[in-house]
């Protein structure tokens, strides 16, 4: 990616924001407050307009990787003490319309129930694509997009299409990169995502975040096993309602391992084993460095050919 990275843009928007600001951004057509400006407030209109331009730049970068990222007709809004009012940015002398950063195009394709999941997919895809681009893996990046565009011709639901993007990405990374290179891509991509809090168990935080975003519906986990050197050797996690589907006897685990890397950078997964159990998935994450990395982005399902 040429120019500022997604993380650079997000940090710029966060630097503009204040906790007690009266101004915020939303879509003039749908009312949504888009990532990465969602939940942020700004001290004045000028600052809010700068944040709006950065928000459009961020989402334009995502659209390079996923054309289904929804377009927003961004406007600056002001919240007063009495009520929230929409400021249409009309100049009192000229009657000019609100600041519009792009022409209205598509409504937000994600249903309210799946909005967090769709945004999560876009963030993961963006972080991985940036890593591939900067690492010089152009052929892998191109192969992912070629597969994705083929799927776009047959998958009518945009929500499902964003999941297909991660599934095809996992398959291409697994096929075209050695496990050690996959591990490097995951570690680099994890640094491009928002830094997690340091409170509590890192695995528990990872699984809870995945559940909150709709990637999984529920989970149970074992305690950490201990290897001969006294470190954490492995942990077994059983998940229900996984949003991604098995592909040719393999389960795409890219978003799971990437989230674990984000929360557990000091001891990221070295291997993943998958078993189907009563309609759920049982995953064994190997944490000890045994020198044998496998299944990091797409893991073979035990018992399936």
Question: How are the SSEs ordered, and which strands pair?
Answer:
Elements: H1 6-16, E1 23-27, H2 45-65, E2 74-79, E3 84-85, H3 115-135, H4 138-152, H5 158-176, H6 179-191, H7 202-212, E4 218-221, E5 234-240, E6 250-252, H8 254-263, E7 271-277, E8 280-286, E9 298-302
Parallel strand pairs: 7-9
Antiparallel strand pairs: 1-2, 2-3, 4-5, 5-8, 6-9, 7-8
- Extended strand count: 9
Strand order in space, largest sheet: 4-5-8-7-9-6
Q: What's the domain count?
A: 2
Order of helices and strands: HEHEEHHHHHEEEHEEE
Major beta sheet, specifics? Answer: 6 strands, mixed
Query: The CATH topology of the largest domain, please?
Result: H-NOX domain
What oligomeric state do the depicted chains represent? single chain
**In CATH's first tier, which class of the largest domain applies?**
Alpha Beta
Label the structural class.
alpha+beta
Helix segment tally: 8
Distance between the termini: 38 Å
Q: Name the poorly predicted regions.
A: 81-110
Integer-rounded radius of gyration: 21 Å
Percent helix, as a range, is 25-40%
What does this structure look like?
Helix 7 (202-212) packs across helix 8. The two termini are 38 Å apart. The model is unreliable at 81-110 (pLDDT under 50). The chain has 2 domains: 6-106, no CATH class; 114-302, H-NOX domain, CATH 3.90.1520. It has helices at 6-16, 45-65, 115-135, 138-152, 158-176, 179-191, 202-212, 254-263, and strands spanning 23-27, 74-79, 84-85, 218-221, 234-240, 250-252, 271-277, 280-286, 298-302. The protein is 40% helix and 15% strand. The longest helix has 21 residues, at 45-65.
């Amino acid at each position: 990616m040429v120019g500022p990275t997604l993380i650079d843009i997000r940090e710029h928007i966060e630097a503009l924001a204040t906790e007690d600001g009266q101004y915020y951004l939303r879509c003039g057509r749908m009312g949504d407050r888009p990532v990465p400006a969602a939940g942020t407030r700004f001290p004045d209109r000028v600052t809010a307009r700068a944040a709006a331009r950065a928000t459009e730049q961020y989402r334009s970068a995502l659209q390079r990787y996923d054309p289904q990222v929804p377009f927003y007709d961004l406007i600056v809004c002001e919240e007063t003490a009495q009520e929230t009012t929409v400021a249409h940015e009309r100049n009192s002398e000229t009657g000019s319309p609100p600041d519009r950063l792009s022409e209205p195009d598509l409504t937000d394709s994600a249903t309210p129930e799946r909005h967090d999941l769709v945004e999560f997919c876009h963030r993961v895809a963006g972080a991985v694509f940036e890593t591939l681009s900067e690492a010089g893996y152009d052929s892998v990046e191109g192969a992912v997009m070629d597969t994705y565009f083929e799927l776009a011709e047959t998958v009518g639901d945009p929500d499902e299409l964003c999941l297909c993007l991660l599934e095809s990405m996992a398959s291409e990374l697994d096929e075209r990169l050695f496990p050690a290179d996959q591990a490097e891509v995951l570690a680099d991509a994890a640094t491009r995502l928002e830094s997690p809090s340091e409170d509590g168990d890192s695995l528990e935080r990872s699984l809870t975040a995945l559940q909150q975003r709709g990637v999984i519906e529920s989970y149970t986990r074992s305690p950490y096993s201990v290897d001969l050197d006294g470190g954490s050797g492995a942990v077994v996690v059983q998940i229900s309602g996984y949003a991604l589907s098995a592909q040719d006897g393999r389960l795409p685990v890219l978003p799971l391992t990437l989230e674990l890397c984000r929360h557990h950078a000091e001891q990221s997964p070295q291997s993943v084993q998958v078993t189907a159990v009563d309609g759920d998935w049982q995953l064994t994450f190997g944490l000890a460095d045994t020198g044998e990395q496998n299944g990091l982005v797409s893991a073979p399902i035990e018992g399936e050919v």
